[in-house]
């Protein structure tokens, strides 16, 4: 799962990065290419004017262009031989047409420019002008013959602009040729239905020989790199690179983590939290305390149960630090409630080795003293799962703890190592009956007998009995019948985070006070 996540995330990041870079780079490159194409359009147009100028020069050199039959014949011959020049006309000084090679073409005209409306070429030889026609506009190129007359070539060069743009961009663009006054003299426009909308980007090149500029208008989307093969190839490469990087990342993340180093990191980050499960009086349901149960709140939000890390914490010698961390935290947070209800008991699990370790009693006293909570309200649950290596020393420690007011509970009684003699000698004040017997008590008579026996033993030794893992009211009834007075279990509440445990206490105390079972002064007494 981690591997798939790392690969997907890496591919996504690489593609996004590549998209950004490639869009900028290729988009920029596309813009430069279109700019080059506008130069191509202009060069072609200049070449067409050069060609028309050359024809007019030849005609002027040939002889009198005086509208005689011979002169018109010569004009027609040149028009016939050329492809761009559609007609050649002789005009007077003002610009009025005197005669034309093909006089029929005059019918297509929709006006005629006056001489002063024409634009002169840089070398002063030619004048360019727009010839409005019913079918659009033609391009006029005028050359003076003498002080009285001129020759005007009528050009149609739209076709020369058709293939300036690559096929893929033709429907996305316009190519136009305009005079300095903005009048269009030639142009290629795609089919009207697919013409570029008003929102276009313009690329213009201005001629330094003729009063003319070529402009290409394109849709902004056409500049997008996404249509480009280079884009697709780059994105493919980025995807592959992202995948490879993701696999490397996944194997790095999946590398075996030293579990003890991970425990140390979590301890340093205070990721172990005290959850608290309430203990209650079986007959009344009153809350009389709670048991601290460790939880590991991982940075990713996962909540790890204690049996997944307590054994390693015990075997690696980290359990002591962990125990102090969660005990201090619980005492600090629950101090107001514990000072208000002096009968409230908070219990914490202590491993036998920790209990018997150097300085345990002193350390515990310091921790509890710094929280301003009475030692009488702190219960140490020593599990029976692990054997008490040195029973004599354990008995001494328990005695010393008792002298300072702490109580010891023997946990998991009935399923652990210690026999009746341990229970009797250790001097513990509380016996915790394991969930195993609580589960069986409503269906197995022998469980009833064991519980009755433990209750009798506890009375004999002046101990109280707490039953663990109560989930049903029938179990409560059976336990009461056996003489058990206190318990804990999901029937009342699972272990809760400190915040939720405090809320639980508030709600419980409020309803108990409302029912008149407990009054606040009693709690404080
Ligand atoms: N199914 C069911 N379970 C119930 C019910 N009521 C309580 N339990 C669970 O029974 C366990 C009782 O704690 P435990 O016997 O001390 O057993 C504890 C204790 O031995 C150990 N542990 C937990 N926290 C610590 C700690 O801070 N230090 C040490 N040394 N051991 C700890 O881990 C054990 C397991 O703790 P948890 O998983 O919290 O499991 C807890 C509790 O959540 C119920 O009605 N139904």
From TrEMBL:
SMART domains: EAL. The chain crosses the membrane at residues 229-250. Its main location: membrane. It catalyses: 3',3'-c-di-GMP + H2O = 5'-phosphoguanylyl(3'->5')guanosine + H(+). SUPFAM superfamilies: EAL domain-like. Its EC number is 3.1.4.52. It is a multi-pass membrane protein. It is found in: Cell membrane. Keywords: c-di-GMP, Cell membrane, Hydrolase, Membrane, Transmembrane, Transmembrane helix. The keyword Membrane applies. The keyword Membrane applies. Residues 256-509 form the EAL domain. PANTHER family: CYCLIC DI-GMP PHOSPHODIESTERASE PDED-RELATED, CYCLIC DI-GMP PHOSPHODIESTERASE PDEF. This is cyclic-guanylate-specific phosphodiesterase.
């Amino acid at each position: 799962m981690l591997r798939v996540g790392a690969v997907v995330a890496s591919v996504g990041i690489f593609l996004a990065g590549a998209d950004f870079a490639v869009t900028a780079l290729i988009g920029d490159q596309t813009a430069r290419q279109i700019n080059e194409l506008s130069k191509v359009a202009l060069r072609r147009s200049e070449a067409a004017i050069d060609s028309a100028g050359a024809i007019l020069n030849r005609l002027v050199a040939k002889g009198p262009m005086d509208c005689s039959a011979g002169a018109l014949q010569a004009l027609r011959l040149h028009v016939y031989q050329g492809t761009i020049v559609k007609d050649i006309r002789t005009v007077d000084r003002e610009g009025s047409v005197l005669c034309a090679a093909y006089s029929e073409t005059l019918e297509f005209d929709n006006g005629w420019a006056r001489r002063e409306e024409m634009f002169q070429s840089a070398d002063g030889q030619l004048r360019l002008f727009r010839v409005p026609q019913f079918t659009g506009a033609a391009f006029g190129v005028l050359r003076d013959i003498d002080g009285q007359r001129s020759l005007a070539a009528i050009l149609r060069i739209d076709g020369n602009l058709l293939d300036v743009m690559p096929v893929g961009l033709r429907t996305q663009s316009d190519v136009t040729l305009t005079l300095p006054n903005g009048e269009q003299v030639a142009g290629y426009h795609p089919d009207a239905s697919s013409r570029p909308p008003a929102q276009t980007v313009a690329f213009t090149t201005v001629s330094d020989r003729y009063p003319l500029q070529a402009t290409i208008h394109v849709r902004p989307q056409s500049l997008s790199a996404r249509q480009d093969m280079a884009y697709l190839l780059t994105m493919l490469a980025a995807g592959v690179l992202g995948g490879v990087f993701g696999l490397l990342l996944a194997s790095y993340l999946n590398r075996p983590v030293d579990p003890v180093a991970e425990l140390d990191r979590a301890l340093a980050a205070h990721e172990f939290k005290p959850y608290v499960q309430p203990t209650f009086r079986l007959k009344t349901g009153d809350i009389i305390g709670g048991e601290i149960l460790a939880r590991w709140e991982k940075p990713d939000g996962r909540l790890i149960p204690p049996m997944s890390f307590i054994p390693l914490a015990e075997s690696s010698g980290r359990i002591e630090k962990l125990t102090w961390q969660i005990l201090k935290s619980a005492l600090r947070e629950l101090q107001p409630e514990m000072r208000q209800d002096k009968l409230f008991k908070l219990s914490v699990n202590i491993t036998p080795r920790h209990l018997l370790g150097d300085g345990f009693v002193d350390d515990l006293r310091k921790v509890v003293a710094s929280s301003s909570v009475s030692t009488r309200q702190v219960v140490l649950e020593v599990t029976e799962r692990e054997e008490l290596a040195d029973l004599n020393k354990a008995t001494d420690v328990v005695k010393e703890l008792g002298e300072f007011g702490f109580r010891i509970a023997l946990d998991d009684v009935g399923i652990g190592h210690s026999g009746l003699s341990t229970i009797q000698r250790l001097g513990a004040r509380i016996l915790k009956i394991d969930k195993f017997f609580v589960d069986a008590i409503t269906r197995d008579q022998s469980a009833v007998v064991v519980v009755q026996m433990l209750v009798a033993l506890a009375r004999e030794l002046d101990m109280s009995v707490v039953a663990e893992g109560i989930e049903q009211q029938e179990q409560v009834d059976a336990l009461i019948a056996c003489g058990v007075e206190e318990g804990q279990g999901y029937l009342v509440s699972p272990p809760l985070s400190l915040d939720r445990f405090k809320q639980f206490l508030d709600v419980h105390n409020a309803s108990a006070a409302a029912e008149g079972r407990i009054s606040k002064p009693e709690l404080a007494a």
